[in-house]
Task: inverse folding
């Protein structure tokens, strides 16, 4: 029987709750489609700081290296906010994981489900039918550029972040966007700030050149400020949004809000090979952690993406996605998406509804 090793990094806040809700669904999918999943759990984030003194211990990296994919919950929380910036859970765990495994492309599919239109802050006629994909560059730009840091000057402190991109970094993520668009509505929009940023000019030039290899895919350009506005005015105009790191970070959360809750959105971070890290778009949600009410959808949909992109188990991925849709259309809702008066349930019961529909479609 085909066996796959998955590193499970639950992290902090709601991370362990939504991971616990997801693993039985993954197990059931494996059982149904005839393969075996071996889960190896490891510490990350604040939990790892408390237990092992650092956010990404060496043992965790080893578990990840021995795996075909990482299923990641969330990290961070108020307990660790007083730590120096370089020791903070997100910066000290997620960024090195992305860098270590060369995960340069972050894919966030954003779908407005018809059942949840009333949970969207936008009017139903604007949110209806939104189905877009944000492809965000993940290992370059302001988050990694050097020099970076804070120095003392005679006028006070000076903080520096550097926005730097090289051609090859843009080329590889642009190809991910064009390939994805080929399988969708064949339209890529490059989001940049080419009217003021030098790096954006390089993005435009490079993406135009890559576009010539994809004659079947249309290419459009949008300044990031306009993109932020268009996302709430007319989100259906988009298919694939290609963004540098910072713009993608911000716009993907804005796009996420259209669907009603951050708890709905999965993401896949991919590199050259099939290895990937799969994490919900949201964070550790300390405000609801421990209450058993977190929406596990994003984490469960991450599991489907993991099966699709890292393991090539497309049928199992589709089965999870359709069980999820079935639970939604049968009226199951966690509190964050309960505005239409469906059956409001907690994390476990919501996941159980999906599991039931996976086992008995
Ligand atoms: P957050 O995404 O954790 O929460 C924002 C809001 O969305 C909260 O009201 C929260 O309750 C809600 N929310 C998020 N996920 C939800 C879910 N699954 N179900 C229901 N509601 C959900 O963002 P924040 O409050 O800005 O950050 C909290 C902590 O998470 C911080 O320490 C931050 O650094 C960290 N964080 C981690 C990641 C990550 O691990 N990738 C990403 C973003 C933020």
Result:
């Amino acid at each position: 029987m085909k066996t796959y090793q998955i590193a499970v990094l639950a992290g902090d806040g709601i991370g362990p709750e939504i991971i616990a809700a997801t693993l039985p669904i993954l197990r059931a999918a494996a059982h149904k489609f005839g393969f075996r999943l071996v889960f190896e759990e490891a510490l990350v984030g604040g939990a790892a700081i408390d237990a092992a003194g650092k956010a990404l211990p060496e043992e965790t990296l080893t578990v990840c290296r021995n795996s075909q994919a990482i299923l990641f919950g969330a990290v961070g929380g108020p307990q660790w906010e007083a730590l120096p910036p370089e020791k903070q859970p997100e910066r000290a765990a997620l960024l090195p994981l992305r860098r270590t495994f060369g995960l340069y492309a972050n894919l966030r599919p954003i779908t407005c489900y018809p059942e949840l239109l009333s949970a969207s802050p936008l009017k139903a006629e604007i949110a209806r039918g939104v189905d877009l994909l944000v492809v965000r560059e993940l290992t370059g730009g302001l988050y990694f550029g050097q020099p970076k840091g804070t120095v003392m000057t005679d006028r006070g402190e000076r903080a520096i972040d550097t926005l730097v991109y090289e051609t090859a970094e843009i080329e590889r993520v642009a190809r991910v966007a064009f390939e994805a668009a080929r399988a969708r509505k064949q339209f890529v929009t490059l989001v940049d700030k080419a009217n003021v940023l030098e790096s954006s000019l390089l993005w435009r030039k490079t993406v135009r050149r890559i576009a010539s290899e994809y004659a079947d895919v249309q290419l459009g350009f949008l300044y990031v400020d306009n993109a932020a506005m268009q996302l709430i005015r007319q989100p259906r105009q988009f298919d694939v949004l290609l963004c540098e790191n910072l713009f993608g970070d911000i716009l993907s959360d804005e796009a996420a809000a259209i669907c009603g809750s951050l708890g709905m959105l999965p993401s896949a971070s991919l590199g050259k090979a099939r290895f990937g890290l799969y994490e919900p778009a949201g964070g550790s949600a300390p405000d609801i952690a421990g209450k058993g009410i977190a929406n596990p959808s994003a984490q469960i949909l991450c599991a489907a993406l993991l099966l699709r992109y890292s393991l090539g188990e497309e049928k199992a991925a589709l089965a999870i996605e359709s069980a999820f849709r079935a639970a939604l259309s049968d009226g199951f809702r966690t509190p964050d998406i309960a505005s239409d008066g469906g059956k409001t349930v907690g994390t476990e019961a919501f996941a159980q509804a999906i599991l039931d529909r996976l086992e008995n479609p």
About this structure: The radius of gyration is 20 Å. The pocket of nicotinamide-adenine-dinucleotide is lined by residues 14, 18, 74-77, 90, 94, 261-263, 279, 282-288, 294-295, 298, 336 (CB under 6 Å).
